[in-house]
Amino acid sequence: MSQLTSTTFSKILPSKTQLIFITFIFLFTFIFLLNFPLTSTPLQQHSPLTSDIFSLITPTASNQNTSVFALPNEPNYVAPSPPPVTVTENESSPTLRRSCDIFDGNWVYDDSGPIYPPGSCPYVGGSFNCFINGRPDLDYLNYRWQPHGCDIPRFDGKKMMEILRGKRMVFAGDSLNRNMWDSLICSLSAFNIRGTKHIRPDEFTYFFKDYKSSITVLTAPFLARHQRTEGPKADEKPMARLHIDEIHDTIAKYYDADVLIFNTGQWWHPANTHNGENFFQEGKAYVHEKLDVEEAYKRSMNTWAQWIDNTINIKKTKVFFVSLTAVHFIGGEWNANGTCDSTEIIKPTEPTKDQVLDPYQPWIKNIQELVISKMKTPVVYLNITRLTDYRKDGHPSRYRMPGYKWFPGMPQDCMHWCLPGVPDSWNQLLYASLLSSSQNYM
């Protein structure tokens, strides 16, 4: 019996070889823990942002859920900007050289002319077609955007459509995004790339059969659901309601598009939101009697961010957000004798002046940048605010519609942009972004 017990026990004891192996594992584990402590370390310390065009916005531990992102309440708080979009040398694109922030630069004189001649594109909206509307000067077309420290490729419609082959690109936002969409369709037409137009309520789409691709623009100026309801009395005008806790229903249909390009901001003016009185709604029935427009914008941007984080498949869809563009009303707003019929650009050496922007815009840009920086989904921030701030010469101004005979006291358009013109550079930057990342992403 004792012999059986002894034999059994000896089988349980590890052999000399096993002891050596266990000792080795213990020492290796001990050394590993010394070099990599168990306490969490921010991802940025281990993986700094690279110079790839799609510099991702890294989420921190505090924003891994979809809770509402809070803004500090300090009146002079400035939100941290999302990382700049950069380009690096790319063997397949030799015109992209060195690493730089492509939104940091200046306008340089270039008399090679725009991608498409003025008045030549049939797809330009009437309010953007300054040449047809009678603008006599063309010198504003002889500038191109030059980033500091690198070059960006000239727009190539053929390559753009190869990147978008078999894909859907969707612009969603206000009329500035429509301005950009018109510019893109016209830029493509310069390369004999033409599509079939399809119109639905709040939607314009061009289908490109040869590429099995489509480019759509959605009218959704707030990105939130905008609704008109009947007034409480039969003789009262319909009332507008903005559901700041719901994404625009037209946008929701395109959750699986391959490229989504958003903007919102210009419509968040107190005059367009009834000064926040009985305009903003949350839930099925709760309408705020009074809600500060800035607070409403913050909540609405959070709604958009949560929808993106909860809905978008980042392995399929690339998300862009276009920053505010500068407005240049002088002496009043559009309906108060504001003008911008200037033919001089702001010198690139002059600092950008916030007062050139509408006074409500800095906080809008602040909220945009903070919300985007806290999202889980990588969002490419097309930061064109400074780029447009230099170009007070690029607006339709008095040439805002066909046959419009302007005289002092009549409105000028100092918000939108002539086509061809400044928005063509936005699409050049979009093209550079897609071109640089196409091998890795698209």
TrEMBL record:
**Belongs to which family?**
Belongs to the PC-esterase family. TBL subfamily.
Location relative to the cell: Membrane
Show the InterPro entries listed in the entry. TBL (IPR029962), TBL_C (IPR026057), TBL_N (IPR025846)
* PANTHER family xrefs: PROTEIN TRICHOME BIREFRINGENCE-LIKE 4 (PTHR32285:SF241), PROTEIN TRICHOME BIREFRINGENCE-LIKE 9-RELATED (PTHR32285)
Question: What keywords does the record list, in alphabetical order?
Answer: Membrane, Signal-anchor, Transmembrane, Transmembrane helix
Report the residue ranges that make up the Trichome birefringence-like C-terminal domain in this protein. 152-432
Gene Ontology molecular function, alphabetical: O-acetyltransferase activity
- What is the name attached to this protein's record? Trichome birefringence-like N-terminal domain-containing protein
Membrane topology is:
Single-pass membrane protein
Keyword Ligase tagged? no
Might you report a single GO cellular component term? membrane
Q: Domain Trichome birefringence-like N-terminal spans what residues?
A: 99-151
Could you list the residue ranges that cross the membrane? 19-38
Q: Name one Pfam family in it.
A: PC-Esterase
